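Q: Here's a chain of 260 amino acids. Please give me its 3D structure as tokens.
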Amino acid sequence: MIQKHCHQCGTALIEKELEGEGIVPYCPQCKDYRFPMYNVAVSMVVIDEQSGNILLIKQYGRPHFILVAGYVNRGEALEEAVKREIKEETNLTVSRIIYNRTSFFEPSNTLMCNFTAFVSDASLMSPNGEIDAYQWFSPVDARRNIRPDSLAEKFLNAYLDTVEKPTGQSVPVRCDKNGECGSEEFADLCSHLQKKLFDSDGIYHHLWLAIQNDPELSAVARSRQLHIYRKGKKVLVLAGKAAPKIIRDDSLCNLLPNNK
């Protein structure tokens, strides 16, 4: 048993069978079962919305990069803990949160709840005393630099594996610097548009990252243009040489050059 004593009276717990539950810690003084208690913490893949880069940090004098994380306060919602921890440790304001997954961390008896947290202005980064060092990495470099064989690595890789592969919503897959896509549909895009979308310095690259990171968005190549949809409704069309065509008002359109 991890929990040795009753949290109400302090009496040493014994193991006793509870019908339908199996063996459960039991307090002979209170005559009540004491289900195991554990800590709850949040872990965050922090992403700069403008560049798509991922924040990794070093803490407590240790040499490895990890994710921003922290314990949830009593009575606090997980989403609020995400925003609070990031604000306290980095001074960054979270604009959007996506839940990823959970994993129990036995060494500290903690249920770790992982989220992706997007921040709109990475220039406001101002680490507090809990952070020894930090760096913004591209997704590829973040995989290479995060602490190996750690829960942070597991969370990061699981998230990146999800957004870098095609989904049932037809979100496009990544292309390399030569414009080679994992899908013939997107390889058919105009070469000028491919460079604008897939090159790290392309003017539409941050839109490309936003499309991959937003589950409500999908994209289809048609007539060598990229047609972008939110929940099945077309919001934007991108072309190689022609100006982008805004179909309806959407937050994604705010990322267009000269449209902020």
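Q: Can you summarize the key feature?
A: The longest strand covers residues 94-105.
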